Amino acid sequence: MDEASRRELARRALDGYLSGPGAPAVATAHALAKVHDATAVVLVEGISDQIAVETAAAGRGRDLGAERVVVVPIGGAHATGRVLAGLGPLGAGVSLAGLYDRREEEIVRRGLVSAGAGSPRTRADLERLGFHVCVDDLEDELIRAVGVAEVEALLDAQGDLSSLRSLQGQPAWRGREPEAQLRRFLGSGSRRKLRYARLLVEAAVGRDTLPRPLDALLATV
Questions:
Q1: How far apart are CA 143 and CA 14, in angstroms?
Q2: Which 3 state secondary structure label does DSSP give 84?
């Protein structure tokens, strides 16, 4: 596949979403501007998580925009308390939910407590508040949901399989588990991470293997 074709595939995968150095701050601001009219507010760490949630909802026949469910990429779990404090008390009937990585669980818990959004002590408490954990992160969840062979087929269709093979041949990654290699590959480069957030969720929806945290989050809102 030539470079022009690859760029066109990437453009289509990112259609409607921001990318680039300033994208996280702009995406957060755009989402926060919609919160005043929301029926539900979903906090996620970054734009790739926002893409995943919104793509999963669309795959289930839902239009979160029409439902006034606002997915807010907050720029990392450490911002949970600050963002919630900035939002202030949510209106009556407005639900709060979120998606986070396992390694950030304590940070999210403390953020919720500091903002007065609850007093969770355990993962089960967090789930009751609408916050669902990815083990270890969303990329890991999606790789397991779709399967190594299917992910590699998707990379091939996008013209990225040769780049994966190059990574797999590097001394640091040679012989490692395919899941770990794929996770590293998908996380290397912000645009790649954003592109495959949409493509892998679409594949998971098509296989009816949507990862549990995404499924549970959609049920929450």
A1: 19
A2: helix
Helix (H, G, I), strand (E, B) or coil at 16: coil
Give CA torsion, residues 110, 116, 118, 121, to 10 deg.
30
| Residue 185, number of CB atoms within 10 A of its CB | 22
Q: Answer with the residue of higher pLDDT: 209 or 136.
A: 209
**pTM for this model (two decimals):** 0.90
Q: Are 17 and 194 in contact (CB under 8 A)?
A: yes
Closest by CA to 178, choosing from 150, 202, 197, is: 150
Distance separating alpha carbons of residues 42 and 10, to the nearest angstrom:
26
Determine how β-strand 95-101 pairs with β-strand 69-73: unpaired
Question: By the 8 A CB rule, do 185 and 167 touch?
Answer: yes
Amino acid at residue number 30 = H
- If we measure between CA atoms, which residue out of 72, 77, 51, 78 comes closest to residue 133? 77
Average model confidence (pLDDT) across the chain: 90
Tell me the pLDDT tens digit for each residue of 101-148.
999 999 999 999 999 988 999 999 999 999 999 988 999 999 999 999
CB 199 within 8 A of CB 158: yes
Query: How far apart are alpha carbons 191 and 156 in whole angstroms?
Result: 17
